[in-house]
């Protein structure tokens, strides 16, 4: 049978497969490689945990989680290993891969845990080194002040050589108190967050009732906190106090504020020894940490070589077991039964895959492949490529086509970019869009391998749509004769100025010296003249009506094509004919008057003709277009419901059995027919038909007016382009200052790109989308089907 490609969906068949259990896995795998069979779930009543291969699916999901963990580790380590081609040594089965992935995960987790502990220790030692340095400076400065005071005679020699080495830090407080009350002082050192230090100091002061002495020094560079791992700014502190009760209070306050406390020896020799030990241990730990990181990078690099292959392998196995869970298992558990849909043209490929699977598995029994007769509605399948896929997505966003109804996608390839270009007509802007689309197309392999953002991915997916939109924009821009709103004189104009200086061209107008029309596009003399807007508005408004009527008539004709294909004579005589009559009796007549006025140059007032067609209908109804429009309304409303009732009664009585039957396609696609088991309700059918009639009658008026958006957006684009050119570019170039000219050129380029090439492009795109979805497709397109979604390895790889 001849393939229908985009115009109608592929002819589908419902098939049944009966496969041995031992070869079921390989059979599904081979079918997934060709990607032409859409399986049906035969166990809808079972939950995912009650299915036969639930454990296998769970194992695949667990492996997918581990592979995602490997990907995250590669990203975290900023490693991008080169993907090398697979060799025979790299080919492993799923069981071996599962064991390997488990071992690699355990190894990576152990490396990460050890590295985390080492890093935490390094952070603690770094902070300890800062505390030792700052605290040591406290004591060093105190001893220096002691020596100075001793030499000046302030302190007695006996007090200097006493056992209390902390005494100089509290010299002022000691001199103000009785020496008999001095006790043995203690101190606590540590580091606290700089943002908490003021509160920390105040609370310690209140808790000890002022019986403490605190010195602090901020660490210059932010350091990594050992507890949280965050890089924060900290302050080193030392608190002197008296008594064990004060020690307990200060310790609790330090814990509450997250301050890290460290031991600090009082003896200077022990301090120097401790600092040396900390520095030596830091070097050793950093060396160990670097070795661990190198080992982790080597493991991740070896994983990265085959990670993409492993991901595809796990996705394939998961999809295969998910499909096996959809199959029905017989009582003996020796066979699996599958049902699904496939294109008729793909049957030989499916049978060949079944034979290869049985041969490779050494199965004693081949899989049984048979076609089922059913009245279920098949899925819709349009075979697309990278050029047509974007246009088909535009149609499918409105709704998936019903099985084998006319697909608007093949018409959208031309009509969508053309209607966009009618609203975006400027060949300078079209050239910019063409260059951008060519850049995306020439580098599509590079972009396909990258992970793009949502907006960029959408733009890249529609690169061929943008290419056609740019071609048609250049074409319509040449017709409008607009290049950044500037006209070009490619041929000799039919008008000339009244004098050589053309001083009164914009006030008195021009003189027509030739009756030969301008060969192509708009005569450039119209631009900037007094009658530019009236002329262009009239031309674009009438052109919009003609384009709208052409597209709406195409939609009505396609409804006839659907009815003819499905052998539905009722839709032909009581839907297509009256709709075509009503639409053309009013607005088709208006379109003919527009063409006559353009061809003959008549001065007929079209507004007058249309208005008085409704206000003063002529006495000769045979020549009155309103008469045929009025006749078409009851023609659409009444005959079809009664015809359906008559056919239903005949079928129930058995006199003309099969009139409503015919092929399976007829029973599926008769629009107003109920199922055989339901009772026919004439009132319900009448209401349904009345809704369709009112919708078409009112839609004929509103849809025709909706096409005037072509005129409105074209005018807006032209005027915006003219304003930017006159008020920014020309105004800036009227000055001789090169800086002003440069700023004007930059502002003009930014305004053109942001407003005309981005905002106006999006606006024209959305309006063209509305014209196709509402004004065009509602004439014939049902859009209540469902997509053919076969099990395919290629789809899984592309999604991955």
Automatic annotation (TrEMBL):
Coiled-coil regions listed in the entry: 94-135
Membrane topology: Multi-pass membrane protein
First-listed, main subcellular location of the protein, grouped into a coarse class: membrane
Listed transmembrane segments: 418-441, 462-480, 573-596, 745-769
Pfam families named in the record: V_ATPase_I (PF01496)
UniProt keyword terms in alphabetical order: Coiled coil, Hydrogen ion transport, Ion transport, Membrane, Transmembrane, Transmembrane helix, Transport
Places the protein is found: Membrane
Domain of life: Eukaryota
Family per similarity comment: Belongs to the V-ATPase 116 kDa subunit family.
Name assigned to this protein: V-type proton ATPase subunit a
Species this chain originates from: Sphagnum jensenii
Source species taxonomy: Eukaryota, Viridiplantae, Streptophyta, Embryophyta, Bryophyta
């Amino acid at each position: 049978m001849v393939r229908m490609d985009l115009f109608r969906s592929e002819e589908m068949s419902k098939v049944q497969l009966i496969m041995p259990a031992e070869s079921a896995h390989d059979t599904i795998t081979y079918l997934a490689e060709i990607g032409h069979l859409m399986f049906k779930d035969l166990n809808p009543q079972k939950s995912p945990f009650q299915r036969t291969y639930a454990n296998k699916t769970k194992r695949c999901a667990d492996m997918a989680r581990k592979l995602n963990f490997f990907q995250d580790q590669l990203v975290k380590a900023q490693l991008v290993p080169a993907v090398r081609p697979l060799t025979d040594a790299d080919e492993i089965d799923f069981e071996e891969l599962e064991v390997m992935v488990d071992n690699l995960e355990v190894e990576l987790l152990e490396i990460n845990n050890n590295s985390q502990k080492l890093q935490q220790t390094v952070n603690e030692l770094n902070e300890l080194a800062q505390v030792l340095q700052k605290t040591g400076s406290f004591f060093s400065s105190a001893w220096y002040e002691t020596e100075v005071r001793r030499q000046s005679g302030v302190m007695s020699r006996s007090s200097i050589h006493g056992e209390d080495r902390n005494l100089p830090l509290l010299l002022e407080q000691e001199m103000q108190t009785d020496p008999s009350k001095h006790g043995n002082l203690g101190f606590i050192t540590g580091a606290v967050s700089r943002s908490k230090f003021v509160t920390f100091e105040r609370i310690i002061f209140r808790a000890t009732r002022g019986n403490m002495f605190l010195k602090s020094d901020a660490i210059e560079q932010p350091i990594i906190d050992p507890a949280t791992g965050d890089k924060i700014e900290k302050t080193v502190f030392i608190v002197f106090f008296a008594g064990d009760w004060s020690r307990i209070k200060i310790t609790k306050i330090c814990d509450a504020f997250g301050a890290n406390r460290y031991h600090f020896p009082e003896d200077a020799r022990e301090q120097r020894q401790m600092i040396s030990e900390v520095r030596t241990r830091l070097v050793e730990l950093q060396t160990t940490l670097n070795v661990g990181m190198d080992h982790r990078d080597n493991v991740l690099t070896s994983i990265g070589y085959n990670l993409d292959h492993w991901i595809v392998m796990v996705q394939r196995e998961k999809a295969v077991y998910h499909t096996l869970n959809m199959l029905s298992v017989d009582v003996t558990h020796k066979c699996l039964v599958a049902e699904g849909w496939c294109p008729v043209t793909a049957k030989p490929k499916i049978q060949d895959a079944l034979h290869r699977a049985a041969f490779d598995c050494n199965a004693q029994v081949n899989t049984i492949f048979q076609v089922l007769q059913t009245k279920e509605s098949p899925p819709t399948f349009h075979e697309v490529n990278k050029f047509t896929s974007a246009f088909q997505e535009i149609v499918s966003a409105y709704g998936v086509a019903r099985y084998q109804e006319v697909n608007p996608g093949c018409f959208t390839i031309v009509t969508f970019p053309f209607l966009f270009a009618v609203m975006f007509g400027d060949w300078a802007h079209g050239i910019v869009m063409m260059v951008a689309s060519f850049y995306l197309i020439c580098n599509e392999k590079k972009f396909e391998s990258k992970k793009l953002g949502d907006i960029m991915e959408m733009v890249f997916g529609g690169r061929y749509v943008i290419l056609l939109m740019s071609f048609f924009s250049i074409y319509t821009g040449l017709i409008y004769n607009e290049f950044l709103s500037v006209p070009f004189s490619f041929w000799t104009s039919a008008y000339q100025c009244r004098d050589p200086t053309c001083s009164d061209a914009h006030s008195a107008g021009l003189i027509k010296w030739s009756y030969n029309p301008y060969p192509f596009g708009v005569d450039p003399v119209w631009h900037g003249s007094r009658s530019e807007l009236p002329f262009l508005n009239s031309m674009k408004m009438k052109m919009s009506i003609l384009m709208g009527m052409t597209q709406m008539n195409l939609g009505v004709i396609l409804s006839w094509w659907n009815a003819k294909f499905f052998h539905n004579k009722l839709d032909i005589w009581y839907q297509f004919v009256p709709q075509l009559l009503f639409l053309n009796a009013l607005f088709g007549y208006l379109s003919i008057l527009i063409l006559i006025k353009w061809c003959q140059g008549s001065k007929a007032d079209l507004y007058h003709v249309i208005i008085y067609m409704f206000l003063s209908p002529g006495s000769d109804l045979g020549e009155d277009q309103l008469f045929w429009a009025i006749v078409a309304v009851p023609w659409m409303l009444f005959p079809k419901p009664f015809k359906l009732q008559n056919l239903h009664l005949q079928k129930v009585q058995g006199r003309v059995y099969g009139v409503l039957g015919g092929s399976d396609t007829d029973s599926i696609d008769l629009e107003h027919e109920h199922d055989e088991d339901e009772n026919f309700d004439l009132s319900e059918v009448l209401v349904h038909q009345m809704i369709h009639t009112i919708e078409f009658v009112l839609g004929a008026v509103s849809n025709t007016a909706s096409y005037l958006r072509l005129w409105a957006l074209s005018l807006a684009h032209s005027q915006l382009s003219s304003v930017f050119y006159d008020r920014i570019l020309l105004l800036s170039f009227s000055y001789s200052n090169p800086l002003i000219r440069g700023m004007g050129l930059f502002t003009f380029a930014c305004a053109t790109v942001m407003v005309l090439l981005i905002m106006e492009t999006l606006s024209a795109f959305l309006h063209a989308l509305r014209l196709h979805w509402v004004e065009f497709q509602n004439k014939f397109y049902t859009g209540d089907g469902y997509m053919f979604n076969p099990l395919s390895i290629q789809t899984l790889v592309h999604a991955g």
